[in-house]
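Final report, closing paragraph on structural work. Over the funding period we assembled a curated collection of sequence-structure pairs, and we close with a single example.
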Amino acid sequence: RLGDSEALNAAITDKTAAIMVEPVQGEGGIRAVPDAELQQMRALCDEHGLLLIFDEVQCGVGRTGRLFAHEWAGVTPDIMMVAKGIGGGFPLGAVLATEKAASGMTAGTHGSTYGGNPLGCAVGCAVLDVVADEAFLAEVNRKAGLMRQRLEGLVAEHPEVFEEVRGAGLMLGLKCKVVNADVVASGYAHDLITVPAADNVIRLLPPLT
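Its predicted structure, as stored:
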């Protein structure tokens, strides 16, 4: 459970190899892991000799207003997965690792049939040329602030429907008091596309542009 540091400590045994987490949970209900908790995970991994693994498939590549979501907490993972946003619509994913963590991935132990595809790599480089620009990320943060403000207003206007706004940057969610699937269906009727998530939340993931 998020925020339960005692449970996290208790879960570590001599068989634990890593702590793996999404800095901002997507399918789990658009819940951002607090910076202090990510920092605690880094400290625990260092203390016990564990790998810290971040899944930034949804929250990475500019989605939260930084190139990677974990940057807000000032921590560095040992391994990180990215996809979706890194391809800008083209199917692309990558596993990033520190030199030390990657030392265990010798030839034949980690591979991919289509790994290193030249077209995919070219697309990824082109996307990062745009998204990694500080001016682009500043604009993401500006839009995110405006969107959160409007969503907070929506919650205030319709307290019988919505409970709270969640998330970070342009990865936002509305915790519903009514069935989230009904809200999603109502949005479709008004040309608004949202996606349901766990904990009765609807996801709002607009284009970064």
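The domain at 5-131 is CATH 3.40.640.10 (Aspartate Aminotransferase; domain 2). Helices lie at 5-11, 35-48, 99-102, 118-131, 134-157, 180-189. We thank the funder for supporting this effort.
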